[in-house]
Specification:
globular, six-stranded mixed β-barrel, mainly beta, 1 helix, 8 strands, about 10% helix
């Protein structure tokens, strides 16, 4: 276990919400916080600085699958968290997603490469 660090990627993807297609950003895992050394910290700082001038997406899909409660029952499902991205953020941890709201979870359609928000 441990806390993972994700950084916003320059590429965007398609997300389908209620049948409507929207563009969404993608956050990729960089490392666990406990793995950061001086070299990795410098790389993270460089990547974050490169993203500062970029217009940030309003919605971001985390490129990692997590388990989440499907309903009030005890069953769980797997999906990619979909976050309401903070406009000044370039990175996020999976420790409560740094207080960014989780809008839902999405499944990836491997034939089209799009993500579909699950109900």
């Amino acid at each position: 276990m441990g806390v993972d660090l994700f950084i916003l990627n320059r590429r965007q993807t398609t997300l389908i919400i209620g049948g409507k297609k929207v563009r969404a950003g993608v956050a990729k895992k960089i490392c666990k916080l406990t793995e950061i050394d001086d070299t990795l910290a410098a790389n993270i700082q460089t990547a974050t600085a490169a993203l500062e001038a970029m217009k940030k997406p309003k919605i971001v899909i985390v490129d990692r699958i997590y388990c989440f409660p499907a309903s009030a029952s005890e069953q769980y499902r797997e999906g990619h968290p979909v976050l309401a991205w903070h406009p000044k953020a370039a990175q996020v941890t999976d420790l409560n997603w740094d207080m960014m709201p989780v809008l839902g979870y999405a499944e990836k359609d491997n034939t089209t490469g799009t993500y579909v928000v699950m109900n």
